[in-house]
Amino acid sequence: MRIHFKTSYEHDIRLFPDWWTFFVYATLIVVAVLLPWIMDDFYLGEVTNVLIWAIAGLGLMLLTGQTGQASLGHAAFLAVGCYSCVIFMEQGLPFLIAFPAAGILTGIVGTIIAIPAVRLHGIYLAIATIALSILTDDLIVLMEPITDGVSGKFAPMITIFGIEIERWTTPDRFYWLVLAITIICTLIYRNLLRSPLGRAFAAVRDSEVSATAMGVHIARTKAASFGISCGITGLAGALMGFYAGAFNNETFSIVISITLLMMIVIGGLGSIHGAFFGAVVVAYLPQFLSIAKDAIGGGGVAIPGLETGVFGAILILFILFEPMGIYGRWMKIRIWFELFPFARKDMFKRQKSYLKTERLR
């Protein structure tokens, strides 16, 4: 069992708790960089899909898992990021400018929407964001001169310093691009949690009344969380557009919003690892169901709603038996082995109490 001896306040906000943790993640990055030489293009594309979903999960995780604000409308911000990036590139901007500009634009849109939305709580905020997701579908159709309506758009070729990157013709280059963006977004998320703003997010999540007593401006903190969350989500939306190659108003439906929320719940709310674990489930579940159907001899039979039903059943099982998600289960197993034979049976018993200050809401 590793014991961390802390001799200063800086040790509480270190990027890595110890050198072993740094070595583990560095090794993981090296393996990720070498994947194009290890697996074929099909599985490399699936890993790329996992990384894109993980970026989207990080965006929603910041808002829902870290700040405690439920959102069922993040598909709208995926659409804003996707369309804005492609439109910027069609206007002649290079990818290195259009891509971050799409994220910034999406963050600004999210902040503007958050100004009235931060006054809502719980189910009312979820209903408002659902309405936003539905409204975005209609707006894409109404803005046909810009978005091409139901006909949709085709993602242009990405060119960086003369190097052409495209998902189908150069899957390895596209994978490395997505991997680099994933690492950057993860570092931004991790450093944000170490900052005073990240601690304010956690304070708002745990108790708004207590956070106000400590001097946290609730509305401003929620708006900042919404804006940053939408910015990261917009980057994921742009990558989804390049991954799909073609998209229209039906690509970013409300089902994507619900899937995104269920993904972070299954992965583990409030943790970076949870976004990646949930992304693995979302990306590989269709492949697993396809393999399972072939194994039982029903590969040629289409079962409507099978994927959604299985995903919903998995979510129900996690809510009932493991509310902390996959990452929570992994933490329990690891701690149990680290404390063995001193681990107690009720060590991870769920707490039924809650802050009395929340009764005032």
Automatic annotation (TrEMBL):
What InterPro entries does the record tag this protein with? ABC_transp_permease (IPR001851), LivM-like (IPR043428)
- What are the subcellular locations of this protein? Cell membrane
Q: What is its main location?
A: membrane
> Which GO cellular component terms are attached?
plasma membrane
Which domain of life, per UniProt? Bacteria
Residue stretches spanning the membrane: 20-38, 44-63, 70-89, 95-115, 174-192, 223-246, 252-285, 297-321
Under the GO molecular function aspect, what terms does this record hold? Answer: branched-chain amino acid transmembrane transporter activity
Name this protein carries in UniProt: Amino acid/amide ABC transporter membrane protein 2, HAAT family
Q: How does it sit in the membrane?
A: Multi-pass membrane protein
Per UniProt, the keywords (alphabetical) are:
Cell membrane, Membrane, Transmembrane, Transmembrane helix
